[in-house]
Amino acid sequence: MHTFIIVYLNIYTLWFILVSRSSSGIDYRYETCGPRNCGYGPNISFPFYIKGLQNPYCGFPGFMLNCSSNGFPSLRLSETEFIVKEISYETRSLRVIDSAALNSDSNGCVVAVRNVSIPTAQFDLADNVTKLRFFSNCSDSILKDGGFVVGCDGRGRILTMYEGDESVGAALRSCERNTVAAVESGAEVVEVLRRGFVMKWRASECSTCERSGGRCGFNETTYLFRCFCPNRPRYRSCRSEKNRSALLVPAVIFGGAVCLLLCILIAFLIWRCKKKRSKSGLQTTNSDIEESRNFYLGAKIFSYKELMEATDCFSSSKEVGDGGYGTVYYGRLGDGREVAVKRLHEHNYRRMEQFINEIKILTTLRHKNLVSLYGCTSASSKELLLVYEYVANGTVYDHLHGGRSSLTWPDRMRIALETAGALAFLHRSDIIHRDVKTSNILLDTNMSVKLGDFGISRLSSVDATHVSTAPQGTPGYVDPSYQKSYHLSSKSDVYSFGVVLVELVSSRPAVDISRRSNEINLASMAVSQIERRAFVELVDEFLGFGKDGEVARMTTAVAELAFRCLHVEKEMRPCMDEVLSALNEICEGHHHHFGDGIFSSSSIQFESE
After folding, report:
1. Fewer CB within 10 Å: C terminus or N terminus of the chain?
2. How far is CA 312 from CA 15, 141, 303, in A?
3. What's the predicted TM-score (pTM) here?
4. CA-based nearest residue to 48, from 61, 63, 37
5. Binding site feature residues
6. Torsion of the alpha carbons at 281, 286, 288 and 289, rounded to the nearest 10
7. In a domain, 366, yes or no
């Protein structure tokens, strides 16, 4: 009996020490993610973090700040450093100033202003922000007639105009160079540059966590929001942690009193206490899991059972598409919405990366020509399923090469324009699609484009010229320079889009082994024909190339544009904004044929068969 009592006293003492330590220790992430500053300016906390002072998990991806030489926090956009002067966490906004503007003197000396691309996945400009254009190397007439003229002691004069000024068009024609800065309207150029402008950010809401005494953060492994509490991280708030701590102290005191009064009952009390704690912990865990199941990376969570019912247990009769990474099924949700459900192949070891990729891209970007993501299953579900809007009219590939009705030339031109617009939007958001092809260009009932399949897409840094990664994509569309160097850039999408343009003009598939060996690759065949000016061989006769002069003009111009997109040197290819502009010019009849000098037999190479 004596030994029995000693054993249980030792067990209770050990349990008491462990519980006391767990309740009194401060979690290192809670301490690390406290507000910090650079010496001047606002205190920095979630969604921002200061490189070198706070860990990346203290902020949201894409919200890193640095401490500038003047002691203020700074944010880098494109190649420009912006000083962060003010942050309002209540309105989720910040005021930034181009660091170069701080060097502009009061005599009107304006340093060089560079174009800046605002990453729309993270920030929106405030409603009162407008564009201020800077024109240089201008003719004397425009310097006298329009805008504000500024300069440094009379040298290097720069003409400035707000967007919408009636003289902007004349300045564009009379000046050699122009750049655009974001500003708030005002009279003096130096004044508005020094005042900066306001941006609003997009990131997970932090107020629930902060009100409960926690500090917001981000799990870099699971891509989930985390609330760092004094004892340990939680999903949304520290409320359950506080409740647990409040109950813990009386439980320990009560246990100690019982132990002192009647040691023989310790075994029973420990068993009952452990049972209570286990049940309480299970309820808390279940509550946290249910809370996190509502959304994953901003996407609504659907249950596996719900999607099974929507697709009739993934019936083969509901299958509408199949690719290398997954099968797509038609489904109807309980609320009546028609959806497309992508079921990622289980044997594909990259499926989790692709699953996260599509969710991250489609929940942060919105464009009329990008397919909409309704939601997904949870990352721990039996299967990884993605739920999209249902696009009822099939793919461009189906219409060009399948059993669907043939596309008229106006339809094809609109498809080219809308696809180019979607890709240009992605590139401005630093997203590289990596798998541009006609089977990934969907058409709705109005024949409008919905670009889809972002499983292998990549985010490119605004400071990097390329991303190093193993080649992926579809034969016939893959950039040959990417295959050789493993250097992926937005120009790789331009090459793939060039193949799509040739398909729209010729109605031939990108790869066809029934063609002659030197024509199996459509890009190789098309460039040969364009170099020889043999457009009558390239263009689908159904389009009326020999009968309609306007069709002949436009198809020839589109083929020449495709030729530029297919250049072996990626630096020689146009960017997607330039491609979009060229297509608009072709539609408006302003496009001129390129000279024969661009058609050099050594200028284009293609991926090996």
Report:
1. N
2. 52, 72, 14
3. 0.51
4. 63
5. 342
6. 140
7. yes
| 47 preceded by a cis bond (ω within 30 of 0) | yes
Q: Which of 319, 311, 381 is nearest to 346 (CA)?
A: 381
The continuous run of DSSP H or E covering 492 comes out as helix 490-506
Domain annotation covers residue 533: yes
- Classify residue 48: in a domain, yes or no: no
Within this chain, do residues 591 and 457 fall inside the same structural domain, yes or no?
Answer: yes
- Same domain, yes or no: 72 and 146: yes
Sequence-separated (6 or more) residues with CB below 8 Å from residue 275: none
Number of domains in the chain: 4
385 and 355 share one domain? yes
Q: Do 68 and 81 contact (CB within 8 A), yes or no?
A: yes
311-323 CB burial, b ≥16 within 10 A, e <16: beebeeebebbee
For residue 470, which phi and psi values (nearest 5 degrees)?
A: -65, 140
pLDDT band of residue 463 (cuts 50, 70, 90) is very low
Query: Which of 430, 435, 453, 479 is an active site residue?
Result: 435
- In the chain, the percentage of residues whose pLDDT exceeds 70 is 75
Of the three residues 347, 371, 389, the one that is the final residue of a domain is: 389
* Confidence grade of residue 110 (pLDDT, cut at 50, 70, 90): low
257 and 385 housed in the same domain: no
Question: Is the pLDDT confidence value at 551 over 50?
Answer: yes
From the number of C-beta atoms within 10 Å of its C-beta (0-12, 13-18, 19+), residue 568 rates as middle
Task: Please indicate, yes or no, whether residues 172 and 264 belong to a single structural domain of this protein.
Answer: no
Cα atoms found within 13 Å of the Cα of residue 372, Cβ hemisphere only: 11
Domain of residue 358, residue span: 299-389
Active-site residue flag, 435: yes
Phi, psi of 106, deg, nearest 5: -75, -10
Q: What pLDDT score does 332 carry?
A: 95
Do both 90 and 132 map to the same domain?
yes
Q: Are residues 520 and 591 in the same domain?
A: yes
- Residues in contact with 459: Cβ distance below 8 Å, sequence separation at least 6, in sequence order: 430, 431, 432
Please tell me the predicted confidence (pLDDT) of residue 381. 81
pLDDT in tens, 169-225: 888 888 888 888 888 877 677 788 888 899 998 877 788 888 888 999 888 777 678
CA distance 456 to 519: 28
Which range of 10-19, 23-32, 495-504 scores highest in mean pLDDT? It is: 495-504
Nearest residue to 460 (alpha-carbon basis) of 494, 428, 421 = 428
What kind and span of H or E run contains 215? strand 215-219
The answer to whether residues 133 and 178 touch, using CB atoms and an 8 Å cutoff, is yes
- Residue 437: count of CB within 10 angstroms of its CB: 23
Which long-range CB contacts under 8 A does 323-326 form with residues at least 24 apart?
323/439, 323/453, 324/348, 325/350, 325/351, 325/354, 325/455, 325/456, 326/351, 326/455
Instruction: Return the CATH number at 308.
Output: 3.30.200.20
Question: Does residue 445 form part of some domain?
Answer: yes
**pLDDT attached to residue 274:** 64
- Are residue 309 and residue 381 in the same domain, yes or no? yes
Distance between CA atoms of 37 and 405, rounded to whole angstroms? Answer: 63
Q: Tokens 């199949």 correspond to what residue?
A: 322
Distance from C-alpha of 72 to C-alpha of 94, rounded to nearest angstrom = 13
